[in-house]
Automatic annotation (TrEMBL):
<feature type="domain" description="HTH lysR-type">
    <location>
        <begin position="1"/>
        <end position="59"/>
    </location>
</feature>
<comment type="similarity">
    <text>Belongs to the LysR transcriptional regulatory family.</text>
</comment>
<dbReference type="GO" id="GO:0006351">
    <property type="term" value="P:DNA-templated transcription"/>
</dbReference>
<keyword id="KW-0804">Transcription</keyword>
<dbReference type="GO" id="GO:0043565">
    <property type="term" value="F:sequence-specific DNA binding"/>
</dbReference>
<dbReference type="InterPro" id="IPR000847">
    <property type="entry name" value="LysR_HTH_N"/>
</dbReference>
<dbReference type="Pfam" id="PF03466">
    <property type="entry name" value="LysR_substrate"/>
</dbReference>
<dbReference type="GO" id="GO:0003700">
    <property type="term" value="F:DNA-binding transcription factor activity"/>
</dbReference>
<dbReference type="Pfam" id="PF00126">
    <property type="entry name" value="HTH_1"/>
</dbReference>
<protein>
    <submittedName>
        <fullName>LysR family transcriptional regulator</fullName>
    </submittedName>
</protein>
<keyword id="KW-0238">DNA-binding</keyword>
<dbReference type="InterPro" id="IPR036388">
    <property type="entry name" value="WH-like_DNA-bd_sf"/>
</dbReference>
<dbReference type="InterPro" id="IPR058163">
    <property type="entry name" value="LysR-type_TF_proteobact-type"/>
</dbReference>
<dbReference type="InterPro" id="IPR005119">
    <property type="entry name" value="LysR_subst-bd"/>
</dbReference>
<keyword id="KW-0805">Transcription regulation</keyword>
<dbReference type="InterPro" id="IPR036390">
    <property type="entry name" value="WH_DNA-bd_sf"/>
</dbReference>
Length: 300
């Protein structure tokens, strides 16, 4: 069997501690994972993994050889990337992004990239949490943050402004909103990954922090946009997600002179070392695509 593939499988199983998880991540059958691990153990004449019905763990021999096997795999991939750099970008890119950004803005950008680079395949992992890029074998993560993970390499590819929104039907039956403090008298929609129950607003150098009441909270912005459209309250939404509903009159922007916190959109990757030409090309494409701050119009 291919020893390099067997080595990749061993490194991945060491990270996931699961044959099933590695099979899913590497897109092969579980029996094939077992065959590759058997091949590695035969090749090195040592048992590398302890297997139980619930868990897989490294043996002492597995712990001893894992760093060297990882280094060998990295050297092989580095040589491969050097040779690939002479040609059109090719291969598979695993990208992690939030549900809202992936749905509203990433897909149009990826569509244009894949049309330009027909030899590149893209696998998008949609998640509203900070993925472990190394453990989950993510090549590129699109994250919106004020301070990205310092252990990762990041390139800003855009700016994320937020807007206060509600439906006209909700506003017709609720107290008037003319200043930030008025928000305390409203049902608000809380996004658990940003601001949550305290909303920070700025205007002409003035800053106000408003503690709001959120009967409905969620960890995903698209869900809360749907709630705002269903007349359930005031939402603090990323402009890239809400601008279409605002333009169509489905939502009303509130306190437009007050600006919620602005954050950067980053393309993050674990290391500059052995960054494939395909990933480099995608990062450059995304930076160009989002450079002018124009967002795609989407409908739920």
């Amino acid at each position: 069997m291919d020893r390099l593939t067997a080595a990749r499988v061993f490194v991945d199983v060491a990270a996931t501690q699961s044959f099933t998880a590695t099979a899913e991540r590497l897109e092969m059958s579980r029996p094939m994972v077992t065959r590759y691990i058997d091949a590695m153990e035969s090749w090195l004449a040592a048992r590398l993994l302890n297997r139980t019905t619930r868990r897989v763990s490294l043996t002492s021999a597995g712990e001893q050889c894992l760093p060297q096997v990882q280094a060998w795999v990295e050297q092989a991939e580095g040589l491969q990337f050097q040779l690939m750099g002479r040609d059109e970008p090719a291969g598979k890119i695993r990208v992690a992004a939030s549900m809202s950004f992936g749905f509203a803005q990433l897909i149009p950008a990826v569509k244009a990239f894949m049309a330009r680079h027909p030899r590149v395949d893209i696998d998008i992992e949609v998640q509203d949490r900070a993925a472990d890029l190394v453990a989950e074998r993510i090549d590129l993560a699109i994250r919106i943050a004020a301070d990205p993970d310092p252990s990762l390499i990041g390139k800003p590819i855009g700016r994320c402004e937020s807007v206060l929104v509600a439906s006209q039907r909700y506003l017709d039956g609720a107290p008037e909103i003319t200043r930030p403090a008025d928000l305390t008298r409203h049902r608000c929609l809380g996004y658990k990954n940003f601001e949550r129950h305290i909303w920070h607003l700025s205007r002409d150098g003035r800053h106000e922090s408003v503690e709001v009441t959120c009967r409905l909270t969620a960890n995903e912005a698209t869900t809360l946009l749907s709630a705002a459209l269903q007349d359930m309250g005031v939402g603090l939404q990323p402009a890239y997600l809400a601008q279409g509903a605002l333009a169509r009159g489905e939502l009303v922007r509130l306190l437009p002179e007050w600006q919620p916190k602005v954050m950067d959109i980053y393309a993050l990757y674990p290391s500059r070392k052995h960054l494939s030409p395909a990933v480099r090309a995608l990062i450059d494409h995304l930076a160009d695509w989002f450079a002018d701050g124009t967002w795609q119009d989407i409908r739920l």
